Records
---
Amino acid sequence: MKAVRRPLPGPLPVWADIILLPLVNVALAFVTVGIIVRIIGVDPLHALELLVVGALGSPESIGYTLYYATNFIFTGLAVAVAFHAGLFNIGGEGQAYLGGLGCGLAILALDRYLPAWAMIPIAIATAALFGAAWAAVPAWLQAWRGSHIVITTIMFNFVAAALMVYLMVNVLIAPGSMTPQSRNFEPSSFLPAMHGTALNLSLALSLACCFAVWVFLWHTPWGYALRSMGHNPEAAVYAGTDLRRMTMLAMCISGALAGFVGVNELMGVHHRIVLDFPAGYGFAGIAVALMGRNHPLGIVLAALLFGALQQGGAELAFDIPTITREMVVVIQGLVILFSGALVQLPRPWLQALFSPRRPS
Amino acid sequence: MDDPLALLFLTGAATLRVATPLILCAMGGLFSERSGIIDVGLEGKMLMAAFFAAAVAAVTHSAWWGVAAGIAAAEVLALLHGLACITYRGNQVVSGVAINIIAAGLTIVWGNAWFQRGGQTPALEGGERLLPLFFPRAGDNILVYVALVAVPLTWWIVTRTRFGLRLRAVGEMPLAVDTAGISVPWLRYRAVLICGLFTGLAGAYIAIAQNAGFSRDMTAGQGFIALAAVIFGKWRPFPALGACLMFGLLDAVAIRLQGVRMPGLGEVPVQLIQALPYLLTVFLLAGFIGRAVAPKAIGVPYEKEH
């Protein structure tokens, strides 16, 4: 992200840089979406109204919004932790998949013997372990073998998908099942859920992760070293940071966080191992992290927005058949574009806006 | 089918059919990456091109308008990538990821709005598709030959022309190019636009030659396999062609091997063969099989001294 933070002549006031610029970026993304909605012949304001009602109109819809937000918090945090270390983890999708495999395997092995108070923590820990392990390989390859983590994590998404299909079709499939899914978990592994919705205790886990990431990054020596590596690797080495170990640490935390998507999906909702449950959350995490400016608080807000979009978008697609759920995917992509790659686009405009007050 | 020669011919043809979009896409990626612009958005450009090629071919009943529309769609995304990476010096990987996600969503949103078939375009037939030229069973449509010509052409441009020399220079050391009085942004924009042209052809091939219409996510990771092939070929045209053919052969073999017991090995999981391009690329990048060294300035936005 070094390139994005280049110093420019005529700097903006700090508050404008931290709050206004990101808001303008997100606004640009949403204006573009409005134009696209207009092109396909739907009134954007009417669509927005349906979307808001769909996302927040009833306790059930709020429950679903929070359930989706849970996944976005996990993957947003995952991307953010790696970002702070100067690493770009595009492998959230695969790490979420493996996290789900981890907790699923633990549950399939133990759920008939353990009570809930033992089963649930073990399963959550296994999800973290598997997610971390899947991220550790690209981290190790970058730290010791010099291969680029972006490419390796992309490739690992595909390897994870192939691995899961193989395991589900050949190994873990429930006897007699026609679809590739495992046997149902025993209730001892179920996370307590809000009645009638998919919202479950994973939300509390995700908020705990937010707090833990905040403490770790800004209030521990390791977090300090991790961020210093992201800002300036040479200086970090000079300060005594072992970049290789720090790369491993950052990616393992990142992978574990992504792996928790498996907890929300499998232990909270599906109650068995299924295929394709990461469903793009890993990639959406990039949008969440960029929009939340890599800060846990910002990530929670961005995740709530994306959760509302996901739930409201589903309702919207139901009401207006010309709009499909994939409109939400378009919004995610546009947020990544405007808040990430084109983050500097509105800066000259804002500078022009502020410059009359500060003649140079 | 029992005739070994026929089997060889058909396997070769199948390989080439699968490899054609990979080759086109890889040549595009090669131009972009040699100029110093990482392109993880090959997949998205190809998908968008596939959609517009099929949609326009269905509406105009002409395969050629389809190809043109595919190229145009890919070029729009290529320009967007250039704008983000070259003009605004944004993060190139972020831009590529954004393009992939936007394409994955927009193709379905527009497809559904225009054709009301859940994101699919109407089935194409006759002159709406690119048909085989000489061997009906081999599927040798014009774009297959274009792909085969594209490789030596790319080699010649990159290694034997003034533009190619500058292209390589700008990917290794843009400061030197700038010092010589040559515009770094203009060079890189041209590279990105050439990439758009090739990914557009690749997408059109998938939608209106290999298949008869667009269906959701139909590129299915081939853009990433092409990217892997560029890396596997160490950013050189002929080795990249080799990688594409190898990945194509793996795919063709995977379909034939489904459920077949190999002597001594037992049944080889199809998923393993499908994952091989990615695994091999990871191994190569890690230096376990040779060494792949990327252009030096890749991923670094160029900033002119003020």
---
Amino acid sequence: MNLIAIFLYSMWHIFLPGESTPILIALRAIGTARKSVLKIGIGLAISNGFIMILCLCLGVFIPKNLEQYVTALDIITRLLVVLIFFTVSIYILIQLKQYNYEKDSKAALAKKSFFEKHSLKSGLLIGLIPSPADMGFMLIGSMLPPKKLWPAVAVIWLGVIVSFTLLSYLIGFVPMEMLKEKYNKYIKWLHILTLICLVSIGIWLCYMLCKDYSYYF
Amino acid sequence: MQRLLLLLLILAVLLTPGCRDKKQPGQSKQQNSSWDPLDVFMVHHIRNFHRLHIGVEPYNDLIVEYDGERVLVQFSESMTEQTDGQIHEVFNFPETGQQMEREEYLVFLMKLHAYLTLNPVKRIGENN
């Protein structure tokens, strides 16, 4: 029962603020190919789990003195997440500039974007950023009984893999190619909306980071 | 249009550091009272997603008090019972609570979040 609950929690976790899920959705919304989105999702899931296990191993095998580095690590990783959101926003902005919405888009459709060329690598790279939960595992890993800890972590990884893969597979069914062909004029506004959403999330994450550590300033 | 969006994006990036709380004149780093331990990212997440009650009042699962310098954190009796006392062992807390610096408190929240992720059933506290 406990493992099922952990599995469900880890599946739901990918929809929470600070996770890379909006990036996946945004990439599909701007027309990244279905297969590439799936590859990015798989890459995210694999490296997310890898970094989780790595953090846990650090916590279990060398638990001393890790706490002093966690604050700096937290600030750096949260800044990296914000940076990813702004980088993808800039990428969308460049696409907005390059893409000719008014004319026939077949040539533009045939052209492979950066995330289509390096889909798995992008997913693997984004997923390598440890989340606050990973850092928490690092800190309490040595305090929990190994018999309970390792199965729970394996189940969390399984949950992350299932949810990211399922999500990226499902959003692939949004017929972006058909929409691009039929409603080409309006696609521009979908790109702008996606851009606004990503920038808003980035600003909000940055605001929360500043607020959490406001006593430093 | 693209230039306007680019300008907005640059403005957003430049303005976000301005979101931080302004320090009052004569206020030292240690006396920054505008910081609220119940208004940090992880507290919102634990409250909304993990359904743990966090607050100043004694009926909460996690009682948090702040005197402007240090944070006092205490697990409620019901929380201790629900985890069979394991939570005190994991966090190395006395039952009377633990005083900590703000930085330590943020690290503690990370640990608590990881603990709740690994123990999602036992901690459900519906005591208010």
